Amino acid sequence: MKQTIVIVHMLAVCFVVQGNSQLIQRRTPVGVKVEAERGLRIQPTINIPAKEIETLTAQVSNEASSLELYVKLVTLDYPEDHINVRVIVARTGNGLYVASSVTTLYFAQSQEDKFLVQDVLVSSDVTDLAKAICSEIHGAAGLAESEGVE
Length: 150
Known about the structure:
With 150 residues, the protein is an alpha/beta fold. It contains two helices and seven strands, in the order E-E-E-H-E-E-E-E-H. Strands 1, 2, 3, 4, 5, 6 and 7 form a seven-stranded mixed sheet that branches. Helix 1 (50-64) crosses helix 2 (126-146). The N and C termini lie far apart (44 Å).
């Protein structure tokens, strides 16, 4: 049976935009990093092979192409103001993918990341997880715009 994706907002938007950032223009630059969970584990999880992370990353890029009117995918070290979405993925013993995503605004002039939101995504399917991550990307661009980042 296919599980549905659950998005839980852990914290609301809690940052102050300072100055006249040019973050939102026609297309918001967004850096995305997807990686496997490593280190301390509270719940038992299965290591996700690098090949599976590559597949998920490729699917996120593919899904993000549908957002090209709103976002421009860039690297995390993009030299101008941009949004970063970092995703850590683990798989549970019953086959569910659990991803924690943290979204920040990076301000190039001050070289600071300002916290936007943290979400938890759960899915039994990698393709659905990629779609949920792209939803995060689209939502982050909308959050930045709604907060008056121009």
